[in-house]
Every structure is written in structure tokens, then in C-alpha cells.
Amino acid sequence: xxxxVTGGAGYVGSHCVRALRAAGHEVVVFDNLEQGNxxxxxxxxxxxxxxxxxxxxxxxxxRAHQVDGVMHFAALLNVNESVSQPRRYYENNVLGxxxxxxxxxxxxxxxxxxxxxxxxxxxPLRVPIVEDMEKxxxxxxxxxxxxxxxxxxxxxRKGELGSxxxxxFNAAGAAxxxxxxxxxREEYHLIPVVLQVALKQRKKIQIFGTDYPTIDGxxxxxxxxxxxxxxxxxxxxxxxxxxxxxxxxxGTGRGFSVRQVIEACQRVSGCRITVEExxxxxxxxxxxxxxxxxxxxxxxxxxxxRELEPIVETAWNWHRTHPNGxxx
Length: 328
Ligand code: UFG
Description:
Blueprint: E1 2-6, H1 11-22, E2 26-31, E3 46-49, H2 55-64, E4 69-72, H3 79-84, H4 86-106, E5 111-117, H5 140-157, E6 162-168, E7 170-172, H6 190-198, E8 205-208, E9 220-221, E10 223-225, H7 226-238, E11 245-250, E12 256-257, H8 258-269, E13 275-278, H9 293-299, H10 308-321
Parallel strand pairs: 1-2, 1-4, 2-3, 4-5, 5-6, 6-11, 7-10, 8-13
Antiparallel strand pairs: 9-12
Helix pairs in contact: 1-7, 2-4, 4-5, 6-8, 6-10, 8-10
This protein binds uridine-5'-diphosphate-4-deoxy-4-fluoro-alpha-D-galactose (UFG).
Residues 77, 79, 117-119, 141, 170, 188-190, 193, 205-208, 219, 221, 258, 281, 284, 288 line the site of uridine-5'-diphosphate-4-deoxy-4-fluoro-alpha-D-galactose.
């Protein structure tokens, strides 16, 4: 198949581009390069630079490339920023997706894999989280993802589109061969920040909250390797039926605490990590981990990485060899 990957120069998108090509698919990337990196896209892959808010560029893209399906990653994803700049998030994530879907309809492209998030569940009543639990997102970011999922459901019901929403837990790690990885202009996610301390690019890691009702008082998350996420997208695309909407949690089903992550980073890097314990970050649930039974049974997906250390090893290998991201 020929697949359009929006946000294909970003972290998860670029790993999916590689997985698609390894599986024999042809790829075109669409990215505004605000957060993505040109170097993350292989030179043989066409990169169209543009924004989802510019419908004319999108229309031209679908005219120039007859694609069979779309993987849609292009979005803003900083939860805190979404609270201070809600309009920007609704425009980019909701309006941007509706523009994309509109132009897909015009070009009669009917298959979409959508990058959703466990943020749609908000603070869940129970863990592990199953797909049909209540959706009560607690940030504008989470709400934008849930609004898009509801729109995709309605479009599928009308027979206009087939889509799969993948609700990721915490994407982590880097390509096993060390060629691509997480490289943001400003990093705030736990593992890369801890590894920046190991590389002496930061003085310390702040632990946001040590009084959660968890094994060691720090928050627990489900870290899923980015190459496993890419395989989930591939399976979702290959098993997608037009006129159907499906949504899956993508996580390992295991939770690790902030302290466990820091310890794993310390062991893997061999560097001492200076820690400062601070108060909770607003809107952080105590414990989030997936029940991934549905994606395992229905799509046959299994995570290759189940332990924290091997995930951190791939991340460390990337950060150590690319201390300035792609600008080496
Ligand atoms: N944390 C720290 N110190 C830091 C950074 C993070 O203690 O410097 C903690 C956070 O409080 C959280 C955990 O480490 O408990 C993981 O934090 P991340 O920022 O790496 O990831 P989040 O779990 O906050 O966010 C992820 C995705 C979001 C998604 C969210 C859903 O990155 O896109 O899960 O809750 F919306």
C-alpha cells in the first residue's frame, strides 16, 4: 500500500515510517517540521512540508499522491501547554484532523489510523484500564483526542471511513539500531529528562510528587517501546475495514514508578542521577497502566519489550550518541 504519514518526522511517526517501509509499503510524509526533524525521515522518502490547517496544501497532496491510507500523528501533545493555550490545541488537533479527513473523503481515501492517547480516560476509577471505561479527560489535550475519536466513530457509522484509534500509554525508547529516537526542541518527558541528567545536560531530575498511594509514593506509568507502538500501527492498518471504527489501548500492561524509572536509568547509564523531590504536577493521575488484551487478541499484537531496562537501554544508546538530537 501507499501510506501518507502525517507527523512522520516526529518521534512515534518516524518509527512508524520505518516499520511501514520494512513491511514493504510505500510512504509519503507530511510534516510542518515545527516539532519534527527532517533528518528523522529517510532520504528516499518524500517529505511534503505543510500544515494541516492549510487545506489547499492538503488537497494538492492527495492530488499528487494516490494513497491507500493515512497514519495520522501530526498533533500538539504537551498536556500543560494545552491548559495555557487551549485554542491552539483545538485548532491543531481537532480542526487539523477534520481538514485531513475532509480531504481524504474528497480523494476517496477511506482508511485512517489515528494516534490517540490514554489521556482520554483522565483519572481512571480503576487500573488496568480497559477500552470501555468512562472517558473523562482532564486536560484540553485529552479532550481534543476524545473529540476526534467521537467524530471518527460517527464517520465510520455513516460508512464513509474506516479507522482505528490507538490509545498509547507512555511512548518510550528509541530504534534498536540507534538511528532515530526522541529529539524535541524542549524535553519534558521523564526518561529523556533523566538521561539528560546522566549526560550532564541538566543538574537534576525533579520528582513530581512522592505522596501518591503507590508502591513507593511516586506516580506509576505504562512505558511502551516506540518500535512496539509502530508494530501496533502496522497491524491496525493492515486489518482495518472501511465502515468500522475500533479503538485499542497500547501498553505493556505493566506499571513502573518514577523512582523505578530513575533507578533503571542510573543502572543503564552507570551515572549518578541527582534527584529533587517536589510537589505533585497538577493533573497527574497516581497510576495509569493498560489492559492490552483487546489489541493482543484482535490484532495479534504483542510487545517485544516488556521490561523497563531494555527500553531504557535503547533510549540511552540514542541520547548518548546524539546528545543534541539530530543536530550532531
Ligand atoms: N515526571 C517527573 N519529573 C519530570 C517529568 C515527569 O516526576 O521531570 C513524572 C510525571 O509526573 C509522571 C511521569 O513522570 O508521573 C511520566 O511523565 P511524562 O511527562 O513522561 O508522561 P505523562 O505520563 O505525564 O504523559 C504521557 C504522555 C501524554 C499523555 C499522558 C496521559 O506523554 O501525551 O501520558 O496521562 F497525555
